Amino acid sequence: MVTRAVTTAFPPPDLAALAAYFLGQWQFDRTIWEGSEMPQATAVGIFDFISGEVPGQLLYRERGQLRMLAGALGRPILFSRLFDYRFGADRVAVLFADGERVGQPYQSYLLCGKMLVPAADHLCGPDCYNAAYTLDTEDSFTMETFINGPKKRTRVLTVARRCGPEVEPEVSASPA
Length: 176
Known about the structure:
Layout: H1 15-22, E1 24-34, E2 39-51, E3 57-68, E4 77-87, E5 92-96, E6 105-112, E7 115-118, E8 122-124, E9 127-137, E10 140-149, E11 152-162
Antiparallel strand pairs: 1-2, 1-11, 2-3, 3-4, 4-5, 5-6, 6-7, 7-9, 8-9, 9-10, 10-11
């Protein structure tokens, strides 16, 4: 397990401290709403932020399982994602690190106190993606993502907690 190497002030005063804050392994719970007050799906899993080869780079690797809450109940759906976070002088740029869009920009954020706020919208076809991070404590944060378009009204709430030495999260394909 990768743990945070440097203890920094909270909230992180700058982007270098923010990179140190994110470094390590986290577990998450996620709730997904699509156009209604009732959640359509939940997900659980783990993600790691590890140092990349470029100064100011963290690589994000997420693994988890998704459960539909209505209609398509059954076995969990396993998923994974990779992103490339670049901590620059004034913003955090997030690039795709898997799939057909490797290296292309996904989101860009500004640090405002205990929040990372979008520096710009991310347009994917007719859909607009926006997310904001709230740094809740030294060892937890939330990320709320909105996806809006002609056929989408999606809200995704991710609650992340740092994994400690006593916590070894598991992501398995067995039903809960």
